[in-house]
Amino acid sequence: MTAAILDNALGAVGHTPLIRLDKIAKAYDLKCNLLGKVEYMSAGGSVKDRIAKAMVEAAEREGKLIPGKSVVIEPTSGNTGIGLAMACAIKGYSVIITLPNKMSLEKEALLRALGAEVIRTPTEAAWDAPESHIGVAQRLQREIPHAIILDQYKNVNNPLAHEYTTGPEIVAAVEATPSTSAHPSSGKVDVIVAGAGTGGTVTGLSRAIKKKHNKECIVVAADPKGSVLALPNNLNDEDAGAMYVVEGIGYDFVPDVLTRDPTEIDYWLKTGDEESFDAVQQLMRKEGLLVGGSSGSALSGALRWLKSDAGRPIAETEGKNVVVLLPDGIRNYMSKPWFLKIAMEAEPSPLAGTIAQILKKP
Ligand code: PMP
């Protein structure tokens, strides 16, 4: 992004900062650089703005969208919907979003504020059931004239958006930062950690980094307990069918855009709600970063991997760069009980006693 005037909010999609997580690294005794790619700073508030913009622009190039006529329908966990609703508000297309019930009220409110219709669907419906968010979107598309599903689960522009933007931004930031005695750097992205929903992010990041920057880079993917995305498959057995609260990652089917190539994703980890929310609290308290739940999953997965036999040699090497993708922000989740718990039931500050004493005085 240049400092020049932007035509509209789509010019402020992406271009997010890569930020050191030094205090967390210190707390976990890491010698490597722990870095967060902070995607809530994108215009619509998440990493999915990038694919929404890419899918809409590609459909326009292919002549598939007509302003004032086309109806864009998309099944999503919310963030792709917000990105699409933003792009379509700007460009003049109608939008219908199908959203599983578990997704936050904040996402629904944002979607409606951007002018989208929102249809809630049962969270427990299997992906191929007619009442699921995917099934309802398909039923609507069949009946509504000029309706199109851009389909983030199959659309090549989903992983490509990350191969062309998210990945190169990370590489550019690492390459632009000189190695100093305070912050030694290998000059390369040595490890990248990302959660998987559609899998577009982790697939595109892997391709950007391994093909064009550092083929030795280790790619680690996080999948919530209860989801089926991890490989080898037996990792998914222990908590098969379990529900989880974290939004945006995990599925009950393997989307086409998620690579199954073991040379593109080196390690998979299963993450739980509790460790994810604990990691969100640390990102807020230690680093001042207002991230959402799946950012906590990515960080807790990264920390667990760095403490494993595979990760320890990296964790203990000064200058190795470990990048954690932080997909969205806490403003999507402010009414969720898990957030209110980490915000309101946090340990009292050391000032609490002093304040109470002062206010007791007549
Ligand atoms: N976190 C959040 C909050 C998301 O909305 C998504 C998108 N579903 C992801 C992580 C995962 O991204 P991807 O679909 O590219 O795997």
UniProtKB/TrEMBL annotation:
InterPro entries, alphabetically? Answer: Cys_Synth/Cystath_Beta-Synth, P-phosphate_BS, TrpB-like_PALP, TrpB-like_PALP_sf
Q: In which pathway does it act?
A: Amino-acid biosynthesis; L-cysteine biosynthesis; L-cysteine from L-homocysteine and L-serine: step 1/2
| Name of protein | cystathionine beta-synthase
Cite the SUPFAM superfamilies for this sequence: Tryptophan synthase beta subunit-like PLP-dependent enzymes
Q: Name one GO biological process term.
A: cysteine biosynthetic process from serine
Family of the protein in this entry: Belongs to the cysteine synthase/cystathionine beta-synthase family.
Q: What is the lineage of its organism?
A: Eukaryota, Fungi, Dikarya, Basidiomycota, Agaricomycotina
Q: What range(s) does the Tryptophan synthase beta chain-like PALP domain occupy?
A: 11-328
Q: Which Gene3D superfamilies has this protein been placed in? A: 3.40.50.1100
**Cofactor annotation:** pyridoxal 5'-phosphate
Keywords of this entry: Pyridoxal phosphate
- Listed EC numbers: 4.2.1.22
- What is this enzyme's catalytic activity, as reactions? L-homocysteine + L-serine = L,L-cystathionine + H2O
Q: Hydrolase: is it a keyword of this entry? A: no
The cross-references to PANTHER family, in alphabetical order and at most eight, read:
CYSTATHIONINE BETA-SYNTHASE
* Gene Ontology terms, MF aspect: cystathionine beta-synthase activity
